[in-house]
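Example record used in the benchmark description.
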Amino acid sequence: MESYLDFYRKKTPLSETLFQRARKVMPGGISHNIHYFPPYPILIKDATGSKLIDVDGNEYIDLWMGNYTHLLGHRPQIITQAIETQLRKGIHWGALFEEQIEWAELIQELIPSAEMVRFCCSGTEATMYAVRVARAFTGRKTILKIAGGWHGANSDLTVGIKTPYEKEESLGLLPELQLYTKTIPFNDIDGTLRIIDQNKKDLAAIILEPVIAEGGFSPAAPEYLKMLRSETERLGAILIFDEVISGFRVALGGAQKRFGIIPDLTTLGKIAGGGMPVGVIAGKKEILIQTSPELKKEKGNRILIGGGTFSAHPLTVTSGLAMLRFLKENANVVYPTLERAGEKLRRSLQEIFDQEGLGAAVTGFASLYQVHFPFKKGLELHSPHHIHQFTDIERREVEFRIRMLNHGVHVMHGGGGLSFAHSDEDIKRIIEATKEVSKEMAKS
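Model output (structure tokens):
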């Protein structure tokens, strides 16, 4: 009987050939680690709506959607038209222009914490700057982050990502950094309070994703967020929400609007740029005003946020502005549609896994979901710690992924993010593909 890997190789021969070329010029054949999986990733040549086409001509329903970026699907007309219009005006100016102001004003209007806004080029940059701003504003050093949480590969936050959380995450990082970035357990009030108390004299900030990706897109419990908000206010520390994924996805105003907890600083990315490279730091005026170049350098009270050649790039500005305007004007249709689709998909997939006796578990929130393979049945998976410790990550990232590709569905971490372009037929096909894959895996 033909194995799933043999079928995959037979289906994607040109991808395999091109990947061997890629390995000769890029370490591991990629420039983003998440794009790699063994024996080799598919290579894409086209995308539109909810679909990807690879170099071998195979079509896939896409659930990765450009790293959760394409809330309206691939190449939506409102975005491509905006970019084409901007291309006729200019590609890159390196100067302030009116649309940049309009974009910032719209983010200010939509995100509750956004009294002021600064732009950069990626979510990684945004979280790096947010931590710097918090330390400078408070005059303290210690940052608390969720154990297992991911905030991009900036040096300050490349700590406590994989278990055991106290180990070094990478060569090349200064060991002193770990002295000032420490971990707290997600949704564990008592455990978190103990760590906050241990660091209260030097606590600069607490940073977390209110809907945590490495935790299977589990939302923070309301009482947990209230505790973090109360404790940071009590201690004069900064509360930072990393909404690079959840911003403009779980609600028009992000998770902070949906949950009713307003942080001091927010980092945004992905959807905010309409598909172009983007990072945003938004927050209280009294904090972000300290990054203004109007402050005199000799006073020593200015916080440096780097230039970034492509910060607020005209193509990013125009695509981000088009995206956010559309979402604002159509929020009453877009978000309920995505919510219903997400609930239906998670419920249907869990029913399939239960029927087939596979022991898989579906987690998620709003239009986001992941599939996991617990080592034991009945385990609750609501934090990065539970998923990293108690599930078969490799089975999810390799076998399940390739089997789903064989059935025409492109997943990431066993699932992904739905878009407004995913049709009822797409949802039906995802469910059918998952059913076939479940049968295959149950037999194996």
